[in-house]
Automatic annotation (TrEMBL), chains A, B:
It comes from Lentinula lateritia. This is Pyridoxal phosphate-dependent transferase. The keyword Membrane does not apply. InterPro entries: Aromatic_deC (IPR010977), PyrdxlP-dep_de-COase (IPR002129), PyrdxlP-dep_Trfase (IPR015424), PyrdxlP-dep_Trfase_major (IPR015421), PyrdxlP-dep_Trfase_small (IPR015422), Pyridoxal-P_BS (IPR021115). Belongs to the group II decarboxylase family.
């Protein structure tokens, strides 16, 4: 393809993206695709072609075969998982970045990539209210993009393990302990299996809204220390995946003053974006995060208007990462790196090459401004309030945990009058709700996901697509209510009749 | 930004990318930017704006402030590191992929993303001549994208460690050993520090062209086994970074029949792409790779025409990865995953969310066809032959290792007649060549990188940009010769005069 062919294909791509978003904002297609596992393989040849093909044919096949298999994360009725960040500014940032394809692993390999990342993550850090200690401009702390929140947590754990081993060289890996809560994202357990280290998941209770409390942490640390084990890091969560729970960082702050060797990583993958609004900072323990977090991570590619991926990790002391991750063979040495006048971000993460993500975040931050971000966050929180009101007014549904920002977790919990028996035992309620979710999950016009909260099967509704409006939440509630009624009718038929 | 504003900004972006490539192919600007460390910070505000800005202003600032700080990896005179993959098809793939921003961690989260990846990596696997065991269609083995070759190797090591620990549960992590050669990319050592495991880098010699030999491996394994240590994986390299050395997989194949517990990961990050040409398969030990490799990785984002990043990892047995990396909390369960009818790629790598990269590789494979890939590889190899001939004709320069595909490593090694002394000792030669590289590296019109081969300081010249032509290699040689002469003159002035 030559430059003029690219211009033509590029215009066409832009036009088709516009067509797609016009159709999407008008809900002209459902959120979930109507394809079965394995649909694509019979539609494509089994090998690459011998000779190159004309791009117009490739673009046609894309429209015809690939688009039909998408789950539409930007669809107004996408209420599953957490939202995926999106903005037109983000696409443009990705486009310009892709056009200069480079793996900016050190300053010299593309100075503006490193410099822009350093500046833009300072902008982001300030916008979220993080302490000045986390700024790249501080020369001590700083932030850089990781691939995902999982890898950000992994990097934090590796840094903490390295720091601990440096202070206690005889420690066996087998005796080292990572702490999470039972509600921590699977990134905690996954980091454990990746590193071959043991993770202790601390219990949290429904009464505490699934938040990790200081006393629970203190007991565990004391117990493990007595056993001769070596606690070295806690992964605290701001906004868990199941219910949006927020670990009590204020209490944790008090506890860890007695355990100076333990590092704190704060995983705010989803809810961290709410820190852009002053009114949510207290519930997210921002002050305590700023006081004790060794590292903090949030995903602009979730609730932050930025196309996947864009996950910064900030640290209070960049040496924390570099001491653990700097390997510099001769072929990677540069005059600027040797002189120490630049940041070589490859020493801050797992891989060597790194995507050029700062450009899209720069575009997004400038395009929306702080006010635009605040508006985006508040809109989703307000839409969740609408949903919560609707659930409260229902005699069939109830929340399984307090709503958290733009996330609600609910289930069918019918009043006895709606069933021909007194009350349902917990096991039966779970079966009933699995049936309920089974009905919802085969629909293509709405997408919600399931979870389990301390044994209770429930359904999550997470708001955040830029295209979701009040009407879509009300429609979703109607669908949920409709399927709930049908579930109860089916259930009723399954039950033995009363006298 | 609304849809029509996006259309306008999108067209503008396409046009500007066209302008950029017209200028680049005519070498209208140098390969390296003329900026100093810290150039950008004073040019940008210290915080994100409060209100959103108009995109036309943002796009202007991009052109004015950011482009000037790029190292131009696609420039015809970019001869540093290894090339970064690029094609217009690749940009278009990134653009369409970015437009549906999604983190396709499981099948349901976007069926076509998973299915296309599964199919396209089969196309790629066949194109490179890998064994049918590595095909996703086999239902047993398969391939998926990792972030970089470093992370592919890391994943392979984690899988091998997990398999070894499953077979030998009492093994202490402290006693486990990873094997590499001293020429293995820093990804080996980095994986060691990440995982807290010891890496033993085996010596290779100049006489063996820096290739790992079977006897060296056998002695090390026997020695370590005698010490009670646990060898569990070898990272073998096809095309090392310093000199393009190829480990002797045929000999390694014989050795490992006696050590059935040791897994083999083949890192062919750069040179693997040469497997597309039948004539390079024997020198890359393809037959032996197909016989013994547990995993194999190469970067389409290096020599493979695909914009960063696109690094597949293939395994002979997908359980190898899944056993090590599958963590499935309730909120990630799906009907299709539970039924086992789909691949959930999140269980094949470190993170959870994953970029949608199959689209661009599909575009590139179709746009170029197998013949287009072969032409691209052969062109770079042929250009390297031109460079090698020029070096051979020089009485100042000599190669430090045999040329490997599209990579040459050279240094000044002057004939005694060109200096006022008999011969130079090795230390002085190194000093001379550092001076030489110092001169080359301050130029902006050509970009080469340094390395050290068994103590010998040398300069690498790696060819692979789609825009590099014969004339650019000849120009590069002229620049090198010019700087070499000036280096020798300066050196001559520094030396004590002869009698």
């Amino acid at each position: 393809m030559n430059i003029e062919q690219f211009r033509k294909a590029g215009y066409q791509a832009i036009d088709r993206i516009c067509d797609y978003y016009y159709a999407l904002q008008d809900s002209k297609f459902p959120v979930l695709p109507d394809v079965e596992p394995g649909y694509l393989r019979p539609l494509l040849p089994s090998s690459a072609p011998e000779s190159g093909e004309d791009f117009s044919q490739i673009a046609e096949d894309y429209q015809k075969l690939i688009v039909k298999g998408y789950t539409h994360w930007q669809h107004p009725s996408f209420l599953a998982y957490f939202p995926a960040g999106f903005s037109f500014e983000g696409i443009l940032g990705d486009l310009y970045a892709s056009s200069v394809s480079n793996p900016g692993f050190n300053w010299l390999s593309s100075p503006s990539c490193t410099e822009l990342e350093s500046i833009v993550l300072d902008w982001a850090s300030k916008m979220l209210g993080l302490s000045g200690s986390f700024l790249n401009a501080s020369g001590v702390g700083g932030g850089c993009f990781q691939n995902t929140a999982s890898e950000a947590a992994l990097v934090a754990i590796i840094a903490a393990r390295t720091a601990y081993k440096a202070a206690h060289p005889d420690t066996k890996l087998e005796d080292m302990r990572i702490y999470t809560s039972t509600q921590t994202h699977s990134l905690g357990l996954k980091a454990g299996v990746i590193l071959g280290l043991t993770v202790r998941a601390l219990e949290v209770t429904r009464e505490d809204n699934f938040s990790l409390r200081g006393d629970t942490l203190r007991s565990a640390l004391e117990e493990d220390k007595k056993k001769g084990l070596h606690p070295f890091i806690l992964i605290a969560t701001i906004g868990t995946t199941s219910s949006g729970a927020v670990d009590n960082i204020a209490e944790i702050r008090t506890v860890v003053t007695d355990f100076p060797d333990i590092k704190i990583h704060v995983d705010a993958a989803w809810a961290g974006m709410a820190l852009v609004c002053p009114e949510f900072r207290e519930m997210c323990y921002l002050k305590d995060i700023n006081a004790i977090a060794d590292s903090f991570s949030t995903n602009f590619h979730k609730w932050g208007l930025t196309n996947f991926d864009a996950c910064p990790l900030w640290v209070r002391d960049r040496k924390y990462l570099i001491d653990a991750l700097d390997i510099t063979p001769p072929f990677l040495r540069t005059a600027q790196g040797d002189a120490g006048t630049v940041i070589d971000y490859r020493n801050w993460h797992l891989g060597l090459g790194r995507r050029y993500r700062s450009l899209k975040l720069w575009f997004v931050l400038r395009g929306y401004g702080v006010e635009g971000f605040q508006k985006h966050i508040r809109k989703a929180v307000d839409l969740n309030k609408v949903f919560v009101e609707l659930v409260s007014s229902s005699d069939m549904l109830s929340l399984c945990a307090p709503p958290s920002l733009a996330l609600s977790v609910f289930r069918i919990n019918p009043k006895p009058s709606t069933l021909n028996q007194a009350t349902l035992p917990e096991d039966a309620l779970n079966d009933l709700n699995k049936l309920f979710y089974g009905r919802i999950s085969v629909r293509k016009d709405i997408f919600l996901t399931q979870t389990v909260l301390n044994g209770q099967f429930c359904i999550r509704l997470a708001i955040g697509s830029a295209f979701t409006q009040d009407v879509h939440i009300r429609e979703a509630f109607e669908v949920i209510t409709h399927e709930g009624k049908l579930t109860l009718e089916a259930w009723d038929r399954l039950l033995p009749r009363g006298p």
